[in-house]
Design a protein that fits this description.
Layout lengths: L5 E6 L3 H13 L1 H5 L3 E7 L3 E3 L4 H6 L8 E3 H4 L4 E4 L1 E6 L4 E5 L3 H4 L4 E4 L2 E4 L3 E3 L7 H4 E2 L4 H20 L3 H7 L1 E5 L3 H17 L12 E5 L11 H13 L2 E4 L4 E3 L4 E4 L4 E3 L2 E4 L3 E3 L16 E2 L12 E3 L4 E2 L15 H19 L13 E7 L2 E6 L2 E4 L1 H14 L3 H16 L15 H6 L32
Parallel strand pairs: 1-2, 1-9, 2-5, 9-21, 11-18, 12-13, 12-18, 13-14, 20-22
Antiparallel strand pairs: 3-4, 6-7, 7-8, 10-19, 15-16, 16-17, 23-24, 24-25
């Protein structure tokens, strides 16, 4: 039994937020039933995205619906609020909440009181002041971006197949990925595989016509899988005619021309930015202690250092790694986030019941990465795998980690069916502007794009217009 009624506020619905709330509703089942505890989850989206599956969703191997987990279904004993916490005043135990209805209500954000705070807002893309990046860059952190990128790649193949202008064709078939971490390498590998397969259905586009370029500022890619496997990944990508440029930076992508630090220039309509992440801006809008890198300073018990009733884990938290040397912190990755979430929930329950807290200790076991269908690299428990065995381990590991039996079964069924039938090569770019056709039929123009719609249905999407400003253009 808890010592007093506890209002627990969980900020974020990602790995840490969802898994913490999921375990808390089990650990505090009786307290929730008696009204002694209340769990509120505030998240911008009503689902948790399993990000390791984003590359396969982009390649069409998994349905977008099965990459996400609906929070209201898995958290029936929690109150799920769709919105954003914009500031936290922990001294007063209040958080400033803005919801989709805030603007319409006209009363401004409201104050949300709490007794225990779990900060898990995740991270955001780390961008640099590269000219043209804000106008033309494409991210790869959300399921919407993954599906938009898939549609975009196939659309570029359609443009290349139909144009008579060699400059437009060359730009359409040039794909630049910036960042040699998991997100960049796996997205590039899966999408190149998909596009290579898709060319067999085009009469005038061959795999050799496409340019795939990976730009990495350091001297290696996939550092998590070790130096040897990183070198193998580079050689495997280059064997597929993918241009891997190490110790190279993107200096500009203005006017749809990617300019690299080695002097190379590539006219392109596709620049995918996966060059790391940074702490969520919310952390700077709190009165909690931060490290020099902007993450919450935490103890090995996942409590915010020197601040009672505040907890954090995952990307937002600088957690000491007790299995490593002094001063070392756990890596901000999914492997630690999922395990930290379980211990975080246990420690909150222990704290409410006046019990001793547990210490987080997990030695890094290794990493797996996919380089496309039947291709991968892995470094797990000191063993190095490559090719099909690594790819199979990648799928098996992430299938075991994706939340809920429902999602496991659906993903496994999709993988089985994709092995029996051909790949889907359909682009559904119109999903991003679903009202465009009706607005045109009703005598208007699709709102906000300012384009000429007299050339038929394909002109409805501003991304299809030459010289437009849409980043997917």
């Amino acid at each position: 039994m808890v010592k007093e009624r506890a209002r627990i506020l969980v900020v974020g619905g990602g790995y840490v937020g969802m898994y913490t709330a999921l375990r808390l509703q089990r650990k505090l089942k009786h307290e929730l039933g008696r009204g002694e505890a209340e769990i509120t989850v505030v998240t911008p989206d009503p689902y948790m995205t399993y990000q390791p599956f984003l590359p396969e969703a982009a390649a069409g191997a998994i349905s977008p619906r099965h990459v996400v987990v609906p929070l209201r279904r898995v958290l029936p004993h929690c109150r799920v609020l769709i919105g954003e916490i914009t500031a936290v005043d922990h001294a007063k135990r209040t958080a400033t909440l803005a919801t989709p209805a805030t603007a319409e209500e006209g009363t401004g954000p409201r104050q949300l009181p709490y007794d225990e705070l779990v900060l898990a807002p995740g991270s955001v893309s780390r961008t640099l002041p590269v000219p043209g990046l804000a106008e033309y860059g494409i991210g790869f952190k959300t399921v919407e971006e993954a599906i938009g990128l898939r549609n975009h790649v196939i659309e570029q193949m359609d443009i290349a197949s139909s144009t008579r202008d060699p400059a437009i064709r060359d730009a359409a078939l040039t794909f630049v990925f910036v960042g040699g971490g998991f997100a960049g390498v796996e997205a590039l590998g899966e999408l190149e595989d998909m596009a290579r397969y898709t060319t067999r259905y085009y009469h005038n586009v061959e795999p050799e016509d496409m340019k795939w370029i990976l730009v990495e500022a350091s001297g290696r890619i996939l550092p998590e899988v070790g130096e040897e496997m990183g070198r193998y990944a580079v050689s495997e990508l280059r064997r597929r005619n993918i241009d891997v440029r190490l110790e190279t930076r993107l200096e500009s992508c203005a006017d749809r021309v990617a300019v690299l630090s080695d002097g190379s220039r590539f006219p392109t309509r596709t620049v995918v930015w996966t060059a790391g992440v940074k702490p969520h801006p919310l952390l700077a809008a709190t009165d909690l202690p931060l490290t020099a890198r902007g993450r919450l300073r935490c103890t090995p018990r996942l409590a915010v250092e020197g601040v009672p009733h505040a907890w954090a884990a995952g990307d937002a938290a600088a957690v000491p790694d007790v299995t490593a040397g002094p001063g070392q912190e756990t890596a901000p990755n999914a492997q630690h986030a999922v395990r930290q979430a379980g211990l975080l929930a246990d420690n909150i329950a222990h704290s409410l019941r006046g019990e001793p807290l547990e210490t987080y200790a997990h030695a890094y076991v290794g990493s797996v990465a996919s380089l496309g269908l039947h291709k991968g690299v892995a470094h797990v428990y000191g063993r190095r795998l490559k090719g099909y065995p690594a790819w199979f381990m990648h799928r098996a590991y992430h299938l075991s980690r994706v939340p809920t039996f429902n999602r496991k079964a659906r993903v496994l069924a999709e993988w089985t069916l994709s092995g029996l039938f051909k790949r889907e090569i359909v682009s559904l770019g119109s999903l991003e502007h679903p009202r465009a056709e009706f607005e045109l039929a009703a005598g208007g123009k699709p709102s906000g794009d300012g384009t000429d719609h007299t050339d038929g249905k394909r002109a409805q999407d501003p991304r299809r217009q030459e010289g437009g400003d849409d980043p997917f253009g």
